[in-house]
Specification:
The structure is a homodimer of 467-residue chains.
Chain A: H1 3-21, H2 23-34, H3 46-62, E1 66-70, E2 77-81, E3 89-95, E4 115-118, E5 124-127, H4 135-152, E6 158-164, H5 174-180, E7 189-192, E8 204-209, E9 211-220, E10 226-227, H6 228-231, H7 238-249, H8 270-278, H9 283-286, H10 303-308, E11 312-321, E12 330-331, E13 334-343, H11 349-362, E14 369-372, E15 376-378, E16 381-382, H12 388-401, E17 406-410, H13 415-424, E18 428-431, E19 446-448, H14 449-466
Parallel strand pairs in A: 3-6, 3-7, 7-18, 8-17
Antiparallel strand pairs in A: 1-2, 2-6, 4-5, 5-19, 8-16, 8-18, 9-13, 9-14, 9-15, 10-12, 11-13
Helix pairs in contact in A: 1-4, 1-14, 2-4, 4-14, 5-13, 12-14
């Protein structure tokens, strides 16, 4: 060990010690962030989204960053940066917006009053909307920056932080923002903290993501709600029409029947498939904890393929007619389904939407109309295998968790990763500390205290390793 | 003409004149009734239902009736009666409760602020929730009683009025009320005013009604809402399962596929069918005004059969997953459909419910559960052909409208008619003055001023004729 290595090794130990010593104060800051109900999909919370952006900006200014909250046609984008002249620069991406909280009655405590909790097997948790997705994860990075700054007085790399407020509603304004601020966002590598660990003890780096297409289908029939006694039997019911279309999308084998849907899907390499088989990813381990017993998708696929490398059609919400208490004997004028497709490999959101539109048209009775929303979409993404930065980050995670990190794909969609590639010419490392039982997007969302604490320590090690 | 006939003819003319002269005051009373938002399906309006019952009680007490508002486990039942010792007694049934008003934004004016309106072809209308169903119709009868009382000092028959407050939610408490008050409700004939005219110029007497079965189906899958990125492709989506079940209920020919569904359906007599064919009841006249072009039901049936003598399966409402603004990428834990069957001939609600339960079970994936509500039901009903009272009422209607009334069936369900038969051993004449364009159960419900005015005059004539 050279004396310089010894010095920086000791500096690293001191920084990690600072993370440990500062945990309570770090939690207090996270709780303050979690108290802001920055729900981006509901226009009623626009002010709270601004507040969340401003809160994070202040934290970073306190750490010596220059920070700008950029107005957009939607919720603001925060960009904060250091300019110490370090040889390398990382661009960190996260989001300050959170999912809606309904059904509110299923929360044990109010979603925006964060509290410490405990899992059945004794793990300490942080419970609040956004605890895991994504405020808790964002704060692991910011707390790592704080520990490095306060211990060593500087950062090992220059850092640009980009926090957006529309991730949960499809990031409609992010692409144009990235395009118009491309020069300012230049970096050597992008880091995204919005993914999960393999399990509570094993970190992971996500190297592939499914793409997504959001859309909404409304079927219209009668010009007004009709009395089902007077018209029932003769009048077309839009709920029946919509149900038939939804039912037709999957065949008995769980395959999507939209013509051309699988055209641009590619099979994972044999090596990846072999690695997946070895992971022992079973219905017992994956589905049983959420009350299910058997995979519902394509019957000739591995479970891990279904959630990582196969595309999907999913109804996220449906409504039509009378949905209040009691009954109301009507044939409704309209019925609506909120739809998302998960896309893989080369599937093009625009092409998939067009194919689905034809599919609907072919099934529409003569006296019905339909409206299919334009749709927000993003293609799937795959990180190039074994880049030097990936190797460095893997080693850093192994040092922290004392176990080899797993390199996996994710079924979720983080469109920004594709945009970084396309608009900023940047590779992205997706490293996050979420767990399968975090109840992301559900009531009683939580983030393990260990994820928060060791996540922060992990970023300290990764930033040192990337230098 | 004997001198007695001449006297009563002149008395009738005077009474009808009193109806004409009192129209403005009668409208003011109806408006007061319409201002009470007595929505029975929503527990939030319980007080307003009581208020509506009390309002009608006071009106009848003012006319010399004795009136009792009976508490029930649900909304109260009003019974008001005269006991003059007239040789015959009629039991009049109506309901003071109204349908919910959503979607509220489609109302041109607030639903409980009644106003006069005008149709495109120049007919004057009364616009409010309940204007036609059933407050306006109930008030035609009460205003006829008022005109008779004020002009002649007495009624030609004794009258018992029964106004219930749960017609729009399936009358759960009425059967037991009828059973326990059977002696008090004894009469020679029942009159129900909750049906429509054949067209704006032709009155009708309804002689058959479809029965009904209300129920609600909830499909449960995952134990909580899941992130559709992480679980999509592998986790069972209850909306898909529910849609498939709904889609399976009808075959390509529009027939219901539930085993045994048509077992107890009987064909209408050839004579009735021939009369129906002569009515020229077409998609053009019946469906076009509500924005539709072709009958949606069984393809081998007449349109009039579809809405009068054939049974139906209808989804009145559906909901599941995220239904707020924007999108939320979840696989929901549950999805629910509000269902009503229209029943005909000998179909038994309990048997139909059991058959549907088996149908659902046969289509349920291994890892889903379902809940099917017990269901409220009523069998279909048919009035015996050409009773003396029917003949008398027909003649009275002809005298008022100067055209032969049409004897028809109705696709709607008025369970009380079957209960009168079963529990009170009473025949019922269904005479009402609603029109097809009344938007019953829909926004901007209306009742023609002519229906209200000539409806009142009709009852004066009918009560004289039944004496």
């Amino acid at each position: 060990m050279t004396s310089r290595d010894a010095a920086s090794s000791s500096e690293l130990e001191q920084t990690l010690q600072a993370v440990d010593d500062g945990l309570e104060a770090a939690l207090a800051r996270l709780f303050a962030f979690l108290r802001i109900p920055s729900i981006s999909t509901d226009p009623a919370y626009a002010t709270q989204c601004q507040e969340a952006a401003a809160w994070a900006a202040k934290e970073l200014v306190d750490l010596g960053f220059s920070a700008t909250v950029h107005a957009t046609p939607g919720h603001p984008v925060l960009v904060a940066r250091t300019d110490s002249g370090a040889p390398r620069r990382v661009l960190f991406y996260g989001h300050y917006d959170v999912q809606p909280v309904d059904p509110l009655n299923l929360w044990h405590t109010p979603p925006f009053e964060p509290r410490m909790g405990e899992t059945e097997d004794g793990r300490h948790t942080i419970v609040a909307r956004g605890a895991a997705d994504d405020k808790g994860q964002v704060m692991t990075f910011i707390e790592a920056l704080r520990a490095l700054k306060t211990t060593t007085g500087h950062l090992p790399v220059d850092v640009t932080l980009l926090l957006e407020g529309e991730e949960e509603c499809g990031s409609p304004n992010l692409p144009s923002f990235l395009e118009s601020h491309a020069a300012e966002l230049k970096a050597d590598i992008a880091l995204v903290c919005d993914t999960g660990m393999w399990d509570a003890k094993t970190p992971s780096i996500t190297t592939s993501l499914r793409g997504i297409l959001h859309t909404e289908l409304t079927i219209s029939g009668p010009s007004r709600d009709l009395h089902s006694g007077l018209y029932g039997g003769a009048a077309r019911n839009p709920i029946h029409v919509l149900s038939k279309i939804i039912a037709d999308v999957h065949d008995e084998q769980g395959r999507v029947t939209i013509p051309g849907f699988y055209d641009d899907v590619v099979e994972p390499p044999a090596e990846i498939l072999a690695r997946w088989k070895a992971l022992n990813f079973t219905p017992e381990s994956f589905l049983k904890p959420v009350g299910l017993s058997e995979p519902a998708g394509e019957q000739d696929r591995l479970l891990i393929e279904l959630v990582q490398s196969r595309p999907t059609f999913e109804i996220n919400g449906i409504y039509g007619g009378y949905i209040g208490g009691g009954s109301k004997t009507i044939i409704p004028a309209t019925a609506t389904a909120k739809i998302s497709f998960r896309l893989v490999a080369d599937q093009d959101p625009a092409k998939i939407r067009a194919a689905f539109e034809q599919f609907v048209k072919a099934r529409l009775p003569a006296d019905c109309q339909f409206d299919l929303a334009t749709g927000e979409g993003a293609r799937a993404f795959m990180v190039p295998p074994e880049s030097a930065d990936l190797t460095a980050a893997s080693a850093a995670l192994k040092a922290e968790w004392q176990v080899e990190p797993v390199t996996i794909g994710s079924g979720g969609s983080i469109p920004v990763v594709g945009q970084f590639r396309k608009l900023l010419d940047l590779d992205t490392l997706l490293i996050g500390f979420g767990l399968d039982d975090d109840r992301v997007h559900s009531p009683n969302e939580k983030y393990d205290l260990t994820s928060f604490h060791k996540g922060t320590r992990s970023w300290v090690r990764i930033l040192e390793a990337l230098a």
